[in-house]
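Please describe what follows:
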Amino acid sequence: MNDWKDGVDLAITVCDAGGKIILMNAKAAATFAKSGGGELVGKSLLDCHPEPSKTKLKGLLASPRLNAYTIEKNGAKKLIYQTPVMENGKLAGIVELSLPLPSDMPHFIRKP
């Protein structure tokens, strides 16, 4: 299971504390194929985003925090989940997960 990240149906992109992309799984590379796909590894994540996304990412790098939201593009819904990776109390990078959401996804409220 060494390459598990390439066998899942969600895009995983990881950048370091300076915003340089250090990892993309196969789904992320395919999602961003028109922008360079896997060749984006080693490039700045900031260069891959237009405004206002670029400013939002700069803010996440300067002040680490969770950024989660949903989008709809070409009729497909996705959850975007950007979370800081902390090491010894300092930002080491950001992990972004992009998960496709089924249009009929159930929602459950669990009681303690």
The chain has one domain: 9-101. Helices lie at 26-31, 53-62. The chain has two helices and five strands. Strands lie at 11-16, 21-24, 67-73, 76-87, 90-101.
